[in-house]
Amino acid sequence: MHTILRLLLGLARGATLVLLVAWAVATATFFLMRAIPGGPLSQERELPAAVRAAIEARYHLDEPVARQYLRYLGEAAMGRFGPSYDHPGRTVGDLIAHRFPVSATLGLTALAIALALAFPLGVAAAIRPGRWPDRLNGWLASAGVAIPSFILATLLLYVFSLKLRLFPSSGWRGPATLVLPALALAALPTAYLARLIRSELSEVLRSDFLRTARAKGVAPWRVVIVHALRHILGPILTFLGPQAAAVMTGSFVVELIFDIPGLGRDFVNSIHNRNYPMIMGVTLFYTVLLVSFNLMADGAARWLDPRTRRQ
Amino acid sequence: MRVDEIQVQPQKAMRGPRWIQRVRRDSSFWVAAVLLGLLVLTVVAGPWLSPYGESEQDLYNIYTRPSLRHPLGTDALGRDQLTRILYGGRISLAVGLAGAGVSLLIGVIVGGVAGMRGGWVELAIMRLIDFLYAIPLLLVVIALMVVLRPGLANVFIALGLVYWLQMARMVRARVAELRVREFVEAARALGAGPSRILTRHLLPNTTGVIVVTATFMVPQAIFTESFLSFLGLGVQQPHASWGMLASEGLPALMTHPHVIAFPALAICLTMFLFQTLGESLRAALDPRQSDFD
Questions:
Q1: Closest to B259 measured CA to CA, from A158, A136, A110
Q2: Residue A21 is nearest to which of B134, B269, B292, comparing CB atoms?
Q3: What are phi and psi of B80, to 5 degrees?
Q4: What is the DSSP letter of A91?
Q5: What are the residues whose beta carbons fall under 8 Å from the beta carbon of B88, sequence distance 6 or more?
Q6: For B49-84, how does the pLDDT look when each residue is reduced to its tens digit (9 = 90+)?
């Protein structure tokens, strides 16, 4: 009973935090966006005054900014994020619902690749420091950090798609189109994760309780898999939380290069076109996602480690 | 033992000499530092090294392959690629160093004040930083670039405004840790005011942390600038940064891959060198924890 109560309390506190941050970000974005010179109706050719006035009235762009702000907050609180100026007849919520699954699939695939590569690499490096897995780890980590995703994406595109013709170069049609962009996105998290696992694991492996376990005759692989790995889950989760939110959303350039109909591409376009409701909607969506993932990672880390649970 | 026989050990400057000694013995530090120095010299001397102008076009020789006349070939307008890369390097390196510089300044001041003052000031600043961390920073940079209009000076400002958070955190943690030490108490007993303690006693002992964090910030700034230029939000024509040169080469990837390859290589090499430099410094500063994070 007590545990459930505390869980509910934690959830309530988390939800309050998410709402608070979302409100602050919405406010900042709203006024920042209005400060951008130009507007959704600025075009090469000036619109006739009557047409302009009609459109402005239709989207409430003729009202004072403060009034528009309050209107936006009210509508957003009811879950309505307005129409997208660039996509006639579609709402922002509708667009996010269509585009986000694409970005999320890509991001989660990248993260899965990163985990699958980083775990064996990091563990091997930690067990035998100074040997070749360790050196490979260090080398890959530096390369992963030094090569920006858009350069890696271009390189993969050139080698595997244009030269070897193994994978399609663009579009979003089934698993084959997923491979190259996911690899391009996976490089950075792989580099960080492999190093994180190496450094955390080698510290845990030096601790007394694992020396005891080894002295008692526990098999070496068991020491690592059963005893040591659970101790490094905390830092890994803390890293994965924001990283998951970042790879699911922050792949503007990779989406651009591989022509993937994800949310990132729409966001960049919406800034260029001053598509106010779309900018607001996507920024809010990202923020809520990021804060929620951070909170979930913190919560999971606390739940896994009894030492931090007690206050 | 008489009281005056007790040797008073002068307080050794924290970490200062030791980490500098360690870094001096590190060969990868020297390799990275020398190569970066050469890179900076070449890029600064670029205009005098090259017989071509930054935007000198030769429309009869577009997209030529590397040759003796044009060692790295020419681009879509027949401009010499090597010259463009040399000029672009001035912008990319300037953005990296200035972006790191602006965020260093903001971060050290905010972090230093937070760590020094403690109490509600510290709490408020740290909460603000936590809050700013919750915002997707790349979005903020993109939005800022649109507000400020693309351009070189604005890239500095946008990067500095966004990337000081990490520096402020590191500096605050270190200053707060040092604030309670005896040498600070001694300084206070001798009548030093808070600003003197911060600038003469606390910050000098934080140099290591500041240097390492700033070194890692340079490649981050270079990356973000190249990213912005790739999206068309960075510096504007006819000037070019490496990121912009790479994005200009993208449409010709299929037919003339060398146009994108060289600027991309320049970005990767520079980021790799700064990364190596930062890691050597970190390893020297804290031999036990030689990994990042």
A1: A158
A2: B134
A3: -70, 120
A4: B
A5: B240, B241, B242, B244, B245, B263, B266
A6: 777 777 777 777 777 777 777 777 777 777 778 888
Contact A64, A56 (CB under 8 A): no
Q: Of B284, B135, B154, B42, which is closest to residue A37 (Cα–Cα)?
A: B154
CA distance A44 to chain B (A): 18
* B147:A36 CB<8 A: yes
Query: Which pLDDT score is estimated for A308?
Result: 58
ipTM of the complex: 0.73
To the nearest 10°, the Cα dihedral for B191, B196, B198, B200? -110
Sign of CA dihedral B165, B168, B171, B173: negative
**Assigned token pair, A179:** 């491979």
Q: Report the residue of chain A nearest B277, measured CA to CA.
A: A142
B139 shares contact with chain A (CB less than 8 Å): yes
**CA B121 to CA B127: how far, in whole Å?**
10
Using a CB-CB distance cutoff of 8 angstroms, which residues of chain A are in contact with residue B154? none
Least confident of A275-279, B78-82, B108-112: B78-82
CA atoms within 13 A on the CB side of B170: 24
Decide if pLDDT at A126 tops 90: no
> How far is residue B258's CA from residue B65's CA, in Å, rounded to a whole number?
7
Own/partner contacts of B261-265, CB < 8 Å, gap of 24 or more, are B262/B72, B262/B73, B262/B81, B262/B82, B262/B85, B263/B84, B263/B85, B263/B88, B264/A151, B264/A154, B264/A155
Nearest to A283 among B139, B219, B257 (CB): B139
What DSSP string describes B142-178? HHHHHHH-SSHHHHHHHHHHHHHHHHHHHHHHHHHHH
Q: Report the residue from B134, B146, B279 with minimal CB separation from A36.
A: B146
Neighbours of A105 (CB within 10 A): 17
Q: List, for residues A67-86, the tens digit of each pLDDT value.
A: 888 888 888 877 778 787 77
**Which has more pLDDT, A117 or A146?**
A117
Taking alpha carbons only, the member of B149, B157, B151 closest to residue B98 is: B157
pLDDT band at residue B6, thresholds of 50, 70 and 90? low
Residues A16, A19: Cα–Cα separation, whole Å: 5
What are the C-alpha distances in Å from A135 to residues A36, A144, A198, B92, B231? 48, 14, 11, 30, 35
Give CA–CA dist A241/A246, Å, rounded. 9
> How many residues comprise chain B?
293
- Quick check: bond before A261 cis, omega within 30? no
Give burial (CB, 10 Å; 0-12/13-18/19+) of A66.
exposed
| Interface check B130 vs A, CB under 8 A | no
The whole-angstrom distance between B184's CA and the closest CA on chain A is 31
